[in-house]
Amino acid sequence: MRKQILLNRSEGGQKNTTSAKQVGLLEKIGYGLGDTAGNFVYQSVLLLLGFFYTEVYGLDTATVASIFLVVRVVDAITDPLMGALVDRTNTQWGKYRPYLIILCVPYAIASVLVFTVPDFGPEGKVIYAYTTYITLMLLFTAINIPYGSMTGVMTSDPKERASINATRFMFATGGGLIVTSLVLPMTKLWENPAIGYRNAMILMAILSVVLFVICFLTTKERVKGVEVKERKSTVLKDLLFVVKNDQYRLVALATLLMVTAQTVKNTTQLYYITIYVEDAVKYSAMFLSVWMIGGMLGAQLASKLLMYVDKKKAYELLLYICAVASAASWFIGDNNIVMIMLLQFFVGFFNQMIAPIWFTFTADSVDYGELKFKRRIDGLTLSFTLFSLKLGLSIGGAIALIIMGYYGYKSGGIAQSNEAIQGILLVFSIVPAVIFIMTALIVRLFKLNSKTIKENALKLEILRAQ
User: Fold this and answer.
1) For an engineered disulfide with 10, which of 220, 338, 357, 458 has Cβ 3.0 to 4.6 Å away?
2) Helices and strands, counts by H and E, the chain
3) Which of 103-112, 270-279, 362-371 has the highest mean pLDDT?
C-alpha cells in the first residue's frame, strides 16, 4: 500500500521535476549530432578498416585479426579507469559534456592516422598499425564514455530517454551514411587508394570536430544521482557496485553478443559485394548506403514500436528478425542485385531499430542499481558497456577474418577459390544469424520490462525529491 501511495505521489508531481523534464527537439538533435561525429570513426572501423588493412595497407588476415584482439587487452584496463574518472568529474559545464570539447580534436587526428599508409617496411607497418589503432581506441573510449553517459542525466523519464536515443541513433546512422556515401567514392578520385582513404578521413575528421562542438553547446545535464554525501567512494567500491548489478551483467553480455554478430556481418560486407556482384565498384557504395538508409528509418521508428510492445519483448523479437534476415542471404545467390539490395535495406532497418532500445537498457540498469545501492554510477557502467561493444567489435572482426582465412581467402585483390567464396557467404549470413539468436536467449533472462523500468523511475523521483 505504501509503495502504491508513493508511486501515486510521484506520478502527480513528476511533470514539475527538473530531472523528468521533457527534452526539446533542438537538444535531441544536438545530442544526436554527437553520435554522427562519433560514427564517422566507428562506422569507418566497422565497415572499412578490415578491408583497408588487407587490400590497401597490405596486411594478411591473421595479422589484422591479432590487431583487433590485442587492443582489447589495453581496453580492459583503460575503459573502467575512464568510467571512474568521469564519475568523479564535476565542472560548471557538468560531469560529461566537457570531455567532448577537450578530446574532439585529438580523436579526429587519430582517425586520420589509422587510415594513413606510412612509408615503412613490413615490420614498421605492423607496429604503426598497432600504435595508431590503440591510440584511436583509447580516444574512442575517452570521448564516448562521457557522451554515452549523458543519456542517463539529460532526463530521468524512461520515455524521454527512448525518444532521445531514437533521435540519437538516427543521426548516428546518418554519420554512417555519410561515410559510405563519401569515403568510398572519394577513394576512387586518386589513382593511389591509400591517398584517397587518408584524404576522405581528413574530411570526416574536420566535420566530427564541428559536430562535437555543437553537441556540447546544445545539451544539458539535469539528473543528480541519489548518493550519501558523507560516504567516501573508491574505484574498487564502484566496480563492485557495477559487478553486483545482476541486470547490468545481462545487459553487458547481450551487448557483447549483439555487437559481435553485427561486426561479423559488417566486416564482410565489402568482401561479399565484391565477390557476389560482377560490377562491384559500381554497387559497393550503394550497397553500404542502403544499409544506412534502412537503419536511419529503423532507429527513428524504435520509439513508436515501444508504444505498442514491451521494451524487453521488442528487443528479443528484433533479434530473431535480424537472425532470419541475415540467414536469408545464404539462399539468394550471386548477381541478384535487386534481392541483395532489398535484403540489405531490411537488415539495416531492423539492426538499427534495436539500437535505441538496446542502449536505454544501460541507463535502466543504472536506475536499478541506484535503487539497490543508493549510488548512481553512469560513467563506470557505461565504460563496461563500451568495453563490451569494443570487445564485440574485435571478436566479430577476428571471427570473420579467421573463418575467411580458414576457407582460403587471400588478401591483395587476387581471384578467390570456390572454398574462399563459400567462406565469405557463410560469415556474411549464417554465422551472425546464430549469434543473434544467442543474444535473444540472453535478453529473455532480463527482469527489466517496461512496467518495472517505469516503476523504478518513479521511485527514484521520490528519493531525489527527499
Assistant:
1) 458
2) 18, 0
3) 103-112
